Amino acid sequence: MLARKSIIPEEFGLPGLASRMPRKPVFRDRVNKARFIAKNGSCNLAHKNIREQGRFLQDVFTTLVDLKWRFTLVIFTTTFVSSWLLFAMSWWLVAFAHGDLDPDRQNGTHCVTDVKSFTSAFLFSIEVQVTIGFGGRMITEQCPTAITVLIMQNIVGLIINAVMLGCIFMKTAQSNRRAETLIFSRHAVIAVRNNRLCFMIRIGDLRKSMIIGATVRLQVVRKTTTPEGEVIPIHQIDVQTESALASNSLFLLAPLIICHVIDKNSPLYDLSAMELQCSDLEVIVILEGVVETTGITTQARTSYVSEEIQWGHRFVPIVTEEEGVYSVDYSKFGNTVKVATPRCSARELDEKPSILIQTLQKSELSHQNSLRKRNSMRRNNSMRKGGGSSGNLRRNNSALAVPKVQFFTPTEGGQTLNAVT
Which key words are in the record (predicted)? Predict the structure, then answer.
């Protein structure tokens, strides 16, 4: 049986129309990859298969400071209890060797008074190391061994107190605690500033105590392949900022916008708006400085992936002057507004400067058209609201209109008349 021929010609069918339609370039979706630096500044890096674990024990103090609080408190409690038990056993052995545990022994010949069991030896150990001194138990001059144990316990107790208290102090005064009040904008923006395409972020400090000698560094992290075929999974490229070119440090008194000019030396030079969304790059921002109150160097970090970079946006101003005082509205810290920005790369913009001029002209025309539409809409609304009253006024004005009167003046010859209204 022959196939039934369609009434619609093949060239007007869906396959024919689809084949003749112009196809737009298809960009593959960016593969989701792990961030190198999280938004809170923590490094997303796992260390595996470390064979030389003993290196961490060579720097015990730093290891204790880097531990989490729950592990630090467990180690703190375990160390003190273990030292008390160890010296309690020493005091019990001294009393046992001297015969103080014998109930028939006279009180004057004891090494330590009222130490008659391991429990009393443990209580005396706590009194010696913590220097409580309740007064019920005391050492006598009968045993030189007891005096030696007393000296050893005091020295060991002082060492444990110094290490543990220093560890807790360093954990409470860590520099990353100060970094919690150093904030970054949620998104980065790319817009035109001073006729150049720029990458911009906003940073701020919530505290009134300043960061002395604050510096900002930008790095682009991406996976690259060398001409020799070597794959570099984390290739860090330094990015120059305007602040670094002008001076060595920032005066972070109020929120600042850090600007990076996308020039020939920038890793973003060849990226357009569409290519940026499909790329797998990550821009890392590092803010360093010295805390004014403590003198400790602090560092705050964050990163921006391609989805967090807004092309054609600009940060809104948040610093205003109110009654002679500069006021900062942090509710608008990350707010942006759309601006006219070419969608091409910075390389194309340098090769064809007319693209920027055309974009700005179109933006100006669209702005003027929007203003005209807005004014016409306001005019129409005002006319609609006052339509009834204006009609009555028009009728009244027409009734009171003065009729035209013609005046004829004779000329010199008296034949021609001129009509004057």
Answer: Ion channel, Ion transport, Membrane, Phosphoprotein, Potassium, Potassium transport, Transmembrane, Transmembrane helix, Transport, Voltage-gated channel
